[in-house]
Design goal:
Blueprint lengths: L2 H16 L3 E6 L2 H5 L2 H14 L6 E6 L11 E4 L6 E3 L4 H13 L14 H4 L17 H6 L4 H9 L2 H11 L11 H10 L6 E6 L8 H8 L1 H15 L3 E7 L3 H16 L15 E7 L8 H8 L23 E5 H13 L1 H5 L2 E2 L2 E2 L1 E8 L5 E6 L4 H8 L9 E6 L5 E4 L9 H6 L8 E6 L4 H15 L5 H18 L5 H17 L3 H5 L2 H9 L1 H10 L7
Helix pairs in contact: 3-4, 7-11, 7-14, 8-9, 8-11, 10-11, 10-12, 11-14, 18-19, 18-22, 19-20, 22-23
């Protein structure tokens, strides 16, 4: 396939979609499937078959549409009308909506979400622009939505160094947690000498409550492939790897199909889009070790070695896979790349605030009323997310804290609700952006217990290579348990803080260095709860 053939295909698919009287988009993301979306799809498919599968009626099984706690979700598209979305859709509801549309009657309003619902209107979707709008297993639909246009534009209009310059100009920073400038990392790999270079997508998402990368890989796998191909062209790499957790079988399967379809269409493999550029991508499935989210441990796992971190330097940009220069970016980071070239680097950099440009995908969960996947401009306040997009706390609960960054992050108290969510602001509060998990907690949450939960997670996931992390997590967890059960002393609190600082300063990799963050942040903002556990032998939250 060349660029002109791709344009013709996009126009053909778009014309077919526009000719449809009704298009039914059923969310088949993992949360909606757990709620029974497969039964909705089956009911609609059977009814359409009874009608002879009319050409002007289309049923699409999409990826995640966003409000996961409201599933199953059904979206109806009709020419000249705004989208209509029903929550908690049952097979009977779906059939009644179809029949009302066929008969020209008023559509049922039971379960119909308001058109001005803040969960949708307050978002800015760049990475998730096609998620929930297309069939993730259809290359045609991805192309019709503008997919692979950015890759074609790059191959035709830009030299490799110019691609890196555009990514620098966009202000994009790594979405995996570290926030390192993406374009600068690309330039480092491009300038590194080596006969072979590699591009790696880190899909080893393991933070509790986080599922942003999983949803992107399940809902829009071609977007990740397109971003990786652009990175390969920019850095001089001809081979890419996507590292996916074994707990994400649907994502891995859809990525495999997407790779095969793209290769058949000439969008991956030899002579991409009839150019001189060649780029292949393979899947590597990890065994579920959280430490393999660390880049050097991930590379070791790809090479068939034990997933343990190593001392840096050298950094992967100089010596990564098999000693060759290697670019590693998070899945969401690659998902931003097509958007940068679609809207332009200047337009992309106009979104966000300060040194944090573009948008960020969050998995909003916990005690907030609207749980789900959201994409918002960098710099939006925590208050806007919790009380506008999230709809506040369930049962009119009182907000107490929000955890960002998972086991490597920290807790943000109620008095900091107006903090903008950007890299620098969160760091100043003792937390991090992380990959995008955002857990909302109410007044009945015990912050000491929260810290113990995350430390237990880190204890289980420590690879054991370095002593500070291997023994530090055990001792910190033991001290937190003593505080929780009322047997700790004030000296234990002092030792707890000293251990946390020791781990931050001496651990080999980011897991150990960041593991104390939830403890330190809760000590900073909720020290009175620790004091109550120690001095009064009571838990203010009643846990």
């Amino acid at each position: 396939m060349n660029w002109l053939e791709m344009i013709e295909l996009a126009e053909s698919v778009t014309a077919r979609q526009q000719a449809c009287r009704m298009r039914f988009l059923v969310c088949c993301g993992t949360p909606c499937m757990a709620a029974g979306a497969d039964r909705v799809v089956s009911a609609l498919r059977s009814r359409l078959e009874e009608l002879g599968n009319p050409a002007d009626l289309e049923l699409v099984s999409t990826g995640c549409q966003g409000p996961c706690s409201r599933g199953p979700l059904l979206t109806l598209l009709r020419p000249g009308e705004p989208d209509k979305v029903w929550e908690g859709c049952t097979p009977e509801m779906a059939l009644s909506i179809l029949q009302a549309g066929l008969d020209g009657e008023n559509l049922p309003d039971n379960g119909l979400l308001p058109a001005d619902w803040p969960f949708f209107t307050r978002q800015k979707r760049l990475v998730l622009a096609s998620s929930g709008r297309i069939d993730p297993e259809s290359l045609e639909q991805y192309i019709a939505s503008g997919g692979y246009d950015s890759l074609a534009q790059v191959l035709i209009d830009f030299k490799p160094d110019e691609v890196c310059e555009q990514v620098v100009k966009s202000g994009l920073r790594g979405r995996g947690g570290g926030g390192y400038p993406t374009g600068i990392k690309w330039q480092l790999v491009r300038k590194s000498s080596g006969n072979r270079k590699f591009v790696v997508a880190n899909g080893d998402e393991g933070d509790p409550g986080a599922y942003m990368d999983r949803s992107l890989m399940e809902s829009d796998p071609h977007r990740v492939l397109e971003g990786m191909a652009i990175a390969g062209y920019a850095t001089g790499a001809e081979q890419g790897y996507i590292y996916v957790r074994c707990e994400y079988p649907v994502a891995a399967e859809r990525l495999r199909k997407a790779i095969k379809d793209a290769e058949r269409a000439g969008l991956l493999g030899s002579r991409v889009l009839d150019s001189s550029f060649s780029f292949r991508i393979d899947i590597r499935v990890g065994a579920g070790a959280f430490v393999c989210g660390e880049e050097t441990a991930l590379l070791a796992s790809i090479m068939g070695k034990r997933g343990q971190p190593r001392i840096r330097p050298p950094y992967p940009a100089e010596s990564g896979l098999w000693g060759s220069p290697t670019l590693i970016n998070n899945v969401e980071t690659f998902g931003n790349i097509p958007a940068i070239f679609r809207v332009g680097a200047e337009e992309f950099s106009s979104i966000g605030s300060g040194k944090s440009r573009g948008t960020k995908v969050f998995a909003l969960c916990g005690e907030v009323f609207n749980n789900g996947l959201i994409e918002v401009p960098m710099g939006i306040t925590l208050r806007e997310i919790v009380f506008e997009i999230g709809g506040g706390l369930r049962n009119n609960g009182e907000f107490k804290a929000a955890q960002t960054g998972g086991p490597s992050g920290g807790c943000i108290p109620a008095e900091k609700l107006d903090t903008p969510l950007d890299y620098e602001s969160l760091q100043a509060l003792g937390s991090i952006m992380g990959s995008g998990g955002l857990i909302v907690m109410g007044k009945n949450s015990c912050m000491v217990d929260v810290a113990r939960f995350f430390m237990e997670f880190c204890l289980d996931e420590s690879c054991g290579k370095c002593t500070p992390c291997r023994t530090g997590t055990v001792e910190i967890y033991r001290l937190l348990s003593r505080i929780c059960n009322g047997s700790a002393t004030r000296r234990d609190l002092k030792i707890l803080e000293e251990l946390c600082m020791m781990m931050k300063d001496t651990s080999l990799c980011g897991l150990g260095a960041a593991a104390p963050n939830p403890v330190l942040s809760t000590l900073r903002w909720f020290r009175d709860e620790y004091e109550a556990h120690v001095q009064e032998r009571s838990c203010p939250a009643g846990v």
